[in-house]
Design a protein that fits this description.
Order of helices and strands: HHHHHHHHEEEEHEEHEEHH
Largest sheet: 5 strands, antiparallel
Strand order of the largest sheet: 4-3-2-1-5
Oligomer: single chain
Number of helices: 12
Structural class: alpha+beta
Radius of gyration: 38 Å
Strand content: 5-15%
Shape: elongated
Number of strands: 8
Length: about 375
């Protein structure tokens, strides 16, 4: 009877005690989360309750397994399995706690500061720090698991003896990976590009959607994803439209006839912008910037609070201005000029045609009205 009750008491007691402690801790975290709405830390810590219960239960079983006297012939294997589970669950719990602390810090910073650029910078740094912590914890956990095997301890000693050679070989083999790793850290703390920034890379316009230690993802305007190594942003030039401030100035060009009413177009631009909700009201302007023998180039300058709004303002101005010209001033649209050129001042059209007829004769032939030599 003792051989049956002992394992049931040890194993069952560990499980029941784990459930009771986990329920009590979860209850306390829930109550703390209800009292302190200004910080999400307690609510985020509740995400690690499964990892906490697993650590607690595994630790109890590992410490009391010898008293259970269950499967004693396999005690070494079972003890090693419990140890590996304890190490893995502990790493899982540490990652959960670190993620909760980091996310809480970012939430507090985003609430206290209204500058979108600074918030995006901190968000990028926080996400990369969280990935670095997770990677370090994972590597340490795997190393601790391997060291539980006696054979791996001997292998570890031999590896330490040849660490210099292995370091050189690994550095040469993983040169690109290491460069991307350091480039990711440089992006995080060098404030070169942040999550949510509007960038132009390789002629593609998009928004930075994800930054990791090795690659960066840009979401284009047509919902495509461009994945690039982070070393690209530290070795090649690129456009960052959100650097410093998200406010932007846009330009719309019109090619119109020389007789186009520029002053009326300027007033129409003002009316269009007043009715456009994407215009931020900072500035606008319209001026003639170039001319050709057939057309005149007019530039409209508009402003908006970010890249998305500047696109909306530009297309709205272009569409409504061209519609207004076609309906109210059709003569201002570009056209091919097939008419005769206007005569200079003081010259009539008849004299100009007579000059043209005279110019058509050969210069060495006698003129039609005289006998002189050409």
């Amino acid at each position: 009877m003792e051989n049956v009750l002992r394992p049931v008491i040890v194993v069952g007691g560990s499980v029941v005690l784990t459930l009771l402690v986990g329920w009590a801790v979860d209850r306390l975290l829930r109550r703390a989360d209800g009292r302190h709405h200004e910080t999400p830390l307690w609510g985020l810590l509740r995400r690690g309750r499964v990892a906490f219960q697993l650590v607690l239960c595994t630790a109890m079983l590992r410490g009391s397994y010898a008293e259970a006297k269950l499967l004693e012939e396999h005690s070494i294997g079972i003890g090693r399995i419990l140890t590996l589970t304890l190490i893995g669950s502990t790493a899982w719990l540490v990652v959960r706690i670190a993620a909760a602390v980091v996310e809480t810090s970012y939430t507090r910073y985003a609430t206290a500061h209204r500058d979108p650029a600074r918030v995006r910078r901190v968000r990028t740094q926080v996400s990369l720090i969280q990935r670095v912590v997770s990677a370090i914890v994972g590597v340490v956990a795997v190393a601790a698991m391997l060291l539980t095997f006696p054979a791996m301890r001997a292998a570890g000693a031999s590896l330490l003896a040849s660490a210099g050679v292995l370091g050189i070989v690994a550095g040469v083999a993983a040169q690109s990976t290491l460069s991307n790793l350091f480039a990711g850290l440089q992006i995080a703390f060098g404030d070169m590009v942040r999550l949510g920034d509007t960038v132009v890379v390789d002629g593609e316009w998009g928004t930075v959607d994800e930054i990791t230690l090795t690659f960066l993802t840009v979401r284009t305007w047509d919902e495509r994803r461009i994945t690039m190594p982070v070393s690209y942003f530290t070795s090649k030039p690129f456009e960052n439209w959100s650097r410093g401030s998200a406010q932007m100035t846009g330009i719309v060009f019109f090619h119109v006839d020389h007789s186009a009413p520029v002053e009326a177009m300027r007033e129409k631009l003002r009316d269009i912008l007043r009715e456009c909700p994407a215009w931020d009201g900072r500035d606008y302007g319209l001026a003639v910037t170039d001319s050709t023998p057939n057309t005149m180039q007019v530039r409209a300058l508009v402003t908006a609070k970010d890249a998305d709004d500047i696109w909306s303002v530009r297309v709205t101005v272009r569409e409504r201005m061209m519609r207004w010209l076609a309906e109210d001033h059709p003569y201002a649209l570009p056209r091919v000029n097939m008419a005769d050129a206007a005569p200079p001042p003081g010259r009539t059209l008849r004299s100009r045609r007579r000059d043209q007829d005279g110019a058509a004769t050969h210069p060495f032939e006698p003129s039609r009205t005289g006998t002189g030599r050409g």
